[in-house]
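Aim 2 progress update. The chain analyzed this quarter is reproduced below.
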Amino acid sequence: MSQIALPLAAAGPTRVVVGNANARVSEALAHPESWPFRTAVLTGPPRSGKSLLARWFVATGKGEAIDDARALPEADLFHRWNRAQEQGTALLIVGGEPPWDIALPDLRSRLGAALQLEIGQPDDAMAEDLLLALAEQRGLALGPEAASYLVPRAPRSFAALERLVATIDRLSLERMAPATHSVWRAALEAMLGPEEPRLF
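Predicted structure tokens:
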């Protein structure tokens, strides 16, 4: 399993699983000197590790990051861009899930000229690594057999995989039993319904 570790103590997840969906992104973040105008815009689906990657980028001294940039007034974001340019600082702008419609023409042209980085959806191999990493973060015992059973049956998104592990953890605690096949199946049924054909 390939992971990026955050070099700081922090609450919550401190590692980013690297796979098909974000390998290009993680490689680009390591080399901000090659970005156009030393600026990159990072987008991707919910719970895909955008904020974790931004924290890693800042913590390793690569540059500055603006997380959840869409929540900022566009004029403020434009000023942050200008300031980074004046200081010669690499700037990572986390824009949430695409598409991102920007009304301010000056900001739209500048961010349009930046390096565009988008996290995709995980393939089977990355989904297995994600399930195991999410379980490890919770102290939940899941092994390769669990991942092999769950991945073909689970919805393919970062958020859904996170919900699935959380549901397995909850059911295991409620039953006061290890997370074995019956718990895996019950978690899938809780998410997808008892008649979901992929369970059989």
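Residues 158-175 form the longest helix (18 residues). The two ends are 29 Å apart (CA to CA). These observations will guide the mutagenesis experiments scheduled for the next reporting period.
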